[in-house]
Amino acid sequence: MAKMTKEEVIEVAHLARLAITDEEAIHFAEQLEAITNAMELLNELDTENVEPTTHVLPMVNVLREDKAEAGLPRETVLKNVKEHEAGQVKVPTILE
Amino acid sequence: MKFYDKTAAELQELIHSNEATITEITKQTIERINELDPKVDAFLAMNEEKAMAAASEMDTAPMEQRGPLFGLPIGVKDNIMTEGLVTTASSRILEGFNPIYNATVVEKLRAAGMVIVGKLNMDEFAMGSSNENSYYKKTRNPWNLDYVPGGSSGGSTAAVAAGEVPFTLGSDTGGSIRQPAAFCGVVGMKPTYGRVSRFGLIAFASSLDQIGPVTRNVKDNALLLQAIAGHDEKDSTSADVEVPDFAAALTGDINGLRIGVPKEYFAEGVSESAKAAVYDALEVLKEKGATVEEISLPHSKYALATYYLLASSEASSNLSRFDGIRYGYRTNKASSLLDFYMNTRAEGFGDEVKRRIMLGTYALSSGYYDAYYKKAQKVRTLIKKDFDDAFKNYDVIISPTTPTPAFKIGEIIDDPLTMYANDILTIPVNLAGVPAISVPCGFEGDMPLGLQIIGNYFDEETVYRVADVFEKATDFHKKTPQLWEGAAQ
Question: Any idea which residues are catalytic in this one (chain B) (predicted)?
Answer without folding.
Answer: 77, 152, 176
